[in-house]
Input
Amino acid sequence: MGQPGSAYSLEKPEEALEAHTISVLVDNEPGVLARVIGLFSGRGYNIESLTVSETEHEAHLSRITVVTTGTPMVIEQIKHQLDRLVPVHSVIDLTVAGETIERELALVKVAGVGEKRVEALRLAEAFRAQVIDASLEHFVFQITGRQSKIEQFVVLMAPLGLIEVCRTGVAAIGRGPERM
Amino acid sequence: MSANENGSAQMTGAQIVLQALSDQGVDHIFGYPGGAVLPIYDELFQQDQVEHVLVRHEQGAVHAAEGYARSTGKVGVVLVTSGPGATNAVTGLTDALMDSIPVVCITGQVPTHLIGNDAFQECDTVGITRPCTKHNYLVKDVDQLAEVLHEAFYVARSGRPGPVVVDIPKDIQFMTGSYKGVSNSQHKSYVPPQQGDQAAIEAAVDLMINAKKPLFYTGGGVINAGPAASESLRELVRMSGYPITSTLMGLGSYPASDKQWLGMLGMHGTFEANNAMHDCDVMICIGARFDDRITGRLDAFSPESKKIHVDVDPSSINKNVHVDVPIVGDCAFVIDQLIEAWKAKNPSLDKTAHARWWDQIDTWRDRKCLHYRKKSDVIMPQYAIERLFALTRDHDTYITTEVGQHQMWAAQFFHFDEPNRWMTSGGLGTMGYGIPAAVGVQMAHRDSLVIDIAGEASVLMTMQEISTAVQYDLPIKIFILNNEYMGMVRQWQELLHGGRYSHSYSEALPDFVKLAEAYRAVGIRAEKPAELDDAILEMIKTPKPVIFDCVVDKQANCFPMIPSGEAHNNMLLGDDVTGDDIEKAITEEGKVMV
Ligand SMILES: Cc1ncc(C[n+]2csc(CCOP(=O)(O)OP(=O)(O)O)c2C)c(N)n1
Ligand SMILES: [Mg+2]
Output
């Protein structure tokens, strides 16, 4: 394994970057998200996507799902640094933990009339997006799926009158009956 | 105070603070009052279990707590007010974080209903201190205060120690709530490791017993793990017969007077330690973190060695340097496990290889890398430290330092045989650390000799703490190597910036002897080598705080030195350095590094 970047390695690290989806179970207390985000910004790690919500109300536990990129050594660091935070209960790298399911939800607003409007609706059906708001000149679609599917849908909507997009970020869970 | 139905005592928030401190065994706290902590100060006034030391600046309070903590192994405690009190503490907190020092810092906060209103002396203390503490809390419910305080002590001292802030709004200090005592139940999420994984221990010992050119590289983690860990380290190292070096932070865990000791390693470490690091085939790193001051150029760092790394903090492992055998655990446990595994294997070592390795080390030692030229009319700074060491040997001595050349000379020429005797700002490199740290050390060790080895520039950053020393009859000695320069800055400007000494001359210095007198301390000056010994002896026997102005050579540089961006086997040595060598040694890329 090569060395990571530091004040003393003169060459830029040439290791390939990997994307990892990391699930972090934390106490749902004030400031916990700031701790996680501050860790990423303070140490120069990337956040590609971040999703947070309380998932166990009685225990006041939240699950943070973060998609990040880095060299294998940096990914190792990220996990250890997260695990070191006092309110963190567990850190699971879903990318290596086994088969996982990753989903994202997006709301996509498209405006237009005539042929473009018909085409947008046709594509939405093909992608199994739902119409959740509409007028004679616009639709709001709700689409769920893998990130790549959403990317693709948004790209297709661009020439058809795309107005804006809101995405939730990735939620991820391991396959099978076990708990993380 | 009264007890409610379920037996837990009812008290005000301020009383809870004092009760928790006393239940945590705290006998000294370092603080500075202000509006947002007045209820706590009022409680302090009405008790005599916890002694409060009034500092002169909140940075000093944290450094004093650090000195206290490092010299005793206990948690250092700080109490400051909101706003400027908290922001002044930030440097100290960062220092404690970088050097893994257990500190609990209680800050006052504006009342809860004013938080976020830009109230007088409000600042976002938890926001500001989040990246410079191990953990922090804002307490908004008086019934949780006791638990939070106990947890703060637990977090500060457990695993890799560090500073913890507890921010308490003023209304919470007045409110009545229930007190809970110290609980022994396991923390819900923060449970640091103790024992190392047995398979990793076995793998490490296999590497160790088969090594031909082994080396122990130890750090502050061994000291943090308590005196027993240093004892165990001695046993392991002696049992093996292997050479040992240590970081700046680890000095004292292995006795410097021992024949297996190679001196400190790193940027200003010894020739023998750094060359041994470069050439070893098995490196046993215990409680150190492969910091950039230690490794030098990473791609040339100890290229041939298999590396074992013991650390209580898994995020320190494989951070800068790839390690072959990581062992996550508390040094105090892991070293004993290594000893046991070693004994169980009853190994027959490769004596010939080890003899050859020691021969090699001896040739490096013969290079006498710490040699310097004495002068008859000027005190060389190295000589001053040598004399200070010689004349204090029979005393029960603790050393603190400031930051700069004097700090490195102290590390090179003052030798420590015991842990917890050496307090220096390693990770952050905070000028101004030494005086307040000495105050904290002396508070814990009233009858010991506590000396701050200082530079004339650094001491001016927290000089006012001499006033604290005078107030509490703390006879600390501030031993200033006065070279009239920010010497370390001057040295880098000489080596890297063509001798253009931009703003590194200590212009308009005070007369330190008179300054001492102004503070009602004692001032002593030595200007010639011939008068040095007597002056030091006078300092030692003075039962009051002393500022010792040791006027030293102004141009002396600190060697050996691994120039930035260079490998361990490419050191600059003191006596033969010419301008030409320096130019060749420091590359353009090296210059961008710190
Ligand atoms: C608070 C702070 N500011 C700046 C520095 C950068 N710095 C490192 S050493 C040094 C000079 C220290 O001078 P002095 O105390 O006289 O010590 P000397 O090197 O002369 O022994 C400076 C400015 C620092 N380490 N800390
Ligand atoms: Mg100086």
Remarks:
- Residues 142-157 of chain B form the longest helix (16 residues).
- Residues 562 and 571 of chain B are 5 Å apart (CA to CA).
- The two ends of chain B are 56 Å apart (CA to CA).
